[in-house]
Amino acid sequence: MQTVILNRQNLLPLGHDYIIVGDVHGCIDELKSLLMKQGLTINNEGLIEITPQTLHKSIVLLGDFIDKANEEKLTETIKFIHRNFHHLNQEKKRFYLIRGNHEEMVYRYISNDPTLEITPKRLEEKEKYYNTVALLEKDDHLKQLFLELYTECAIWFKYAYNEDFSATLTHAPCPVKYLAQSDKQSSSKMVKCISRSKNKGMKLDDLIPYIHQEAQDNQHYHIFGHLSQPNIRHYKNKICLDTSAIYGQTLSCAIITKDSLSFDSVSFECQQKKASQTYNKLFDFHH
Ligand SMILES: [Mn+2]
Questions:
Q1: Is the pLDDT of residue 9 over 90?
Q2: Cut 0.90: pTM above it
């Protein structure tokens, strides 16, 4: 077995239950519902209450909490995550964020990243895929909140219970050799994989063959989001949790308690217009 020297700040402490939530994309109503369904209470000020019953529950967002939703919901999402990130992490860490490709791209736009060449195509993409940019450009306070959250995002986390059970969490699927590594190339592979929109017509399992080829029949899970799916996709130790909330499907989470793994979902609540896309299914071996 490969020995990886783990960076302590990427290790999730044992003794907590972890609620690991897939791509939120501004589905704030669904995020609140999903957390409440896990026994958390949200008060009138939008703060998640810390009670004796919920003291040991931690939240991990798998990335892509922005974009695609409408501006009102995006604003609410950023404010909710920001408030609760600080609130829940006051005494000890209970709220963890993973960087998705949407956070990364929006950060590059709003920080005037010199390596981001602004071409007509880029400007078109900014409107079409990264609608949080325009919102942050006209709301400086919200932009500051986003920037604070961005600096708090990790690329990956690992929960290592024992030699038989662990879970590595990233935004995007990636080959095992990049997983939980700290070099620049590995980091970018954990945030984003090959584009589906640039490879239309190709089956997802052919586009990222490593994900099923490297799947193992064990409980050393790799849990990721990024690839909007019609439901939770689970093959051996590989699990995709992006269940297309903003596309009108569901928002899902995995729950880790000690060495057990379970799942839950809530439906899209129709409090905003859903986005549209055609699904390209992962682990779709029967055809
Ligand atoms: Mn993504």
A1: no
A2: yes
